[in-house]
Amino acid sequence: MIEFEHVTKAFHGKAAVSDVSLNFARGAFSVLVGTSGSGKSTTLKMINRMVDFDSGIIRFAGEPVTRHPVTALRRRMGYAIQSIGLFPHWTVAENIATVPRLLKWPDKKIHSRVIELLELLNLEPAVFYQRYPHQLSGGQQQRVGVARALAADPEVLLMDEPFGALDPVTRSSLQQEILRVQRAEGRTIILVTHDIDEALALADHLVLMDNGKVVQQGAPDTLLRQPANDFVRGFFGDSDRGIRLLGLYCVKNLVRLGEAPSGGVPVSVALSLREALSAFIQQARHVLPVVNGTGEVVGNLHLQDVINQGVTP
Ligand SMILES: Nc1ncnc2c1ncn2[C@@H]1O[C@H](COP(=O)(O)OP(=O)(O)OP(=O)(O)O)[C@@H](O)[C@H]1O
Question: Which Gene Ontology BP annotations are present (predicted)?
């Protein structure tokens, strides 16, 4: 859906992005991750032409972005950033409605979309609808920023550290919301983060950048299991790689269905194997019962199977 071919951008003679070729597939959740100053934000901003590039081609829906009128291009791409950029004299509802208003949606449709998004992002409409940005916490402002980016159902969502100022609990629930929206609606999302665990939790397609270049890209599993070089190995923390790998899989993948339930506090099918490993350690057990979404015991999880998952592809 979005393709980069040999794209280069320099600021004051110094390359920020060098000869980058990438393909962000339609409906995929792509994540740009890397060291500070590696060119992630610049890469993102070149997609909606917030930053012009010096050479190469970037295509959106088959056409070079330079041939799309800037305003039309930006309306097709939601954009959410850490520093939020909410309009201070507009209420939360007016901020969220920015693009629907530009698109001249009827008032009723705008109102119901704003309510829907407030609920989606856990902001009680009765409390937040009429508030102004200065009356919100940093995390609430960020959620309004995400709601605004989603408002007009853009084909592509560009997000630059959108969960940066959130506490770990809110951050994790917002990550799950975004994943749910992306899976349910097949939305194309490109997200920049320097948080490795966030990147691994969200990405279908992970792009690791360093010094303006793409060092390795692919499925998170591939980068963890087959790091292209020492930089990639080091970036994911050599000693944490096994644990991070377990974070990519769910208990559901390994449950031995129909076994007589073992003792111990059950783990849910939806839990990651990383969290399940922690449950084994906390309970000092080798086998734990597994429950499905309705709390019914469906089988067991064996510690040995979890360990094997970290070894076998
Ligand atoms: N507007 C600008 N003017 C001058 N230099 C810039 C500008 N924007 C970015 N740069 C430089 O380009 C390089 C890449 O910056 P970029 O913001 O893309 O990196 P990043 O990977 O997103 O970093 P971070 O994770 O720290 O936000 C950096 O060296 C930065 O200083």
Answer: quaternary ammonium group transport
Residue 11 CB–ligand 1 contact under 6 Å: yes
Task: Specify the pTM.
Answer: 0.86
Residue 272: φ, ψ to 5°:
-75, 160
What mean pLDDT, rounded, does the chain reach? 90
Point out the ligand 1 atom lying closest to the alpha carbon of residue 43.
Answer: 18
Chain segment 157-184, per-residue pLDDT in tens: 999 988 876 778 778 878 887 888 788 7
Burial class (CB in 10 A: 0-12, 13-18, 19+), 126: exposed
Ramachandran region, residue 285 (left: φ > 0; alpha: ψ -120 to 50; beta: rest): beta
Residue nearest (by alpha carbon) to ligand 1 atom 29: 37
pLDDT in tens, 292-310: 989 999 999 999 999 888 6
Relative to the CA of 41, which ligand 1 atom is closest?
Answer: 22
- Closest atom of ligand 1 to CA, residue 212: 14
Q: Which atom of ligand 1 is nearest to the CA of 17?
A: 14
Tell me which residue has its CA closest to atom 30 in ligand 1. 37
Token pair, residue 236, equals 């994911």
Rounded CA-CA distance 81/30 in Å is 16
Given a contact cutoff of 8 angstroms between Cβ atoms, the answer to whether 198 and 1 are in contact is no
pLDDT digits (tens, 9 = 90+) for 59-102: 998 899 999 888 888 888 888 877 667 899 999 999 999 989 98
Amino acid symbol at 306: V
Set out the domains of the chain in order of their start, with CATH numbers.
2-238 (3.40.50.300), 245-310 (3.90.1280.20)
Centre of ligand 1 from the C-alpha of residue 79, in Å: 18
**Percentages (nearest 5) of helix, strand, coil residues in the chain:** 40, 25, 35
